[in-house]
């Protein structure tokens, strides 16, 4: 009897060793932390010899940090450093091609992440955004008070009339599930740079 129990225990142990790591917590936001505002430094790049590319799109090759097991949400400055550690740059959505890039990436992000850092920073008193690649795009004028208008990817939601940017925050993030007025769709928001968020590298 003892021998049978011993053999059974060995079989169970082998099964757990082989299959135990295949089960993961079923959450699309698995790699996202809480609401801490202090931010966190990135926890390291890919292991040596492996490609950082984890999303191949029509507009380019990208690294989505939340798909990397070692990458935690990070401050904007750390997001820039994180991408550089992969020999990449934090994503810029400038010009006409920027809209196509944003649309493609956001089509993936909407089911995987609640938000992410871009390489944009609000400048010129809230009338323009300077991207990480050095290019500058104008920000559409805000809607008249009490109205809604099409401002591209810039959100009409926020704590001030007319929507984003609110000009008291500098770094540009794409938010999806934060404001009810965004209706679960990706939009640009200016956000304080110390907030922890994942990012996209290109």
TrEMBL record:
Residues 77-202 form the C-type lectin domain. It comes from the Eukaryota. This is C-type lectin domain-containing protein. It comes from Tigriopus californicus (Marine copepod).
């Amino acid at each position: 009897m003892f021998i049978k129990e011993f053999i059974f225990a060995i079989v169970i142990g082998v099964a757990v060793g082989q299959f135990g790591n295949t089960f993961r917590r079923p959450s699309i936001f698995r790699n996202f932390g809480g609401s801490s505002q202090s931010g966190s430094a990135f926890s390291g790049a890919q292991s040596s010899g492996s490609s950082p590319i984890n999303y191949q799109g029509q507009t380019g090759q990208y690294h989505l940090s939340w798909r990397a097991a070692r990458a935690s949400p990070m401050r904007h400055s750390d997001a820039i450093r994180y991408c550089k550690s992969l020999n990449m740059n934090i994503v810029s959505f400038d010009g006409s091609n920027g809209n196509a890039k944003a649309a493609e990436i956001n089509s993936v992000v909407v089911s995987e992440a609640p938000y992410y850092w871009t390489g944009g920073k609000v400048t010129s008193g809230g009338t323009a955004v300077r991207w990480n690649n050095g290019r500058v795009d104008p920000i559409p004028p805000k809607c008249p008070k009490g109205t809604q208008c099409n401002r591209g990817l810039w959100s009409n939601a926020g704590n001030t009339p007319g929507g984003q940017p609110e000009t008291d925050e500098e770094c540009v993030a794409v938010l999806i599930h934060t404001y009810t007025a965004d209706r679960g769709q990706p939009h640009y928001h200016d956000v304080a740079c110390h907030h922890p968020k994942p990012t996209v590298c290109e």
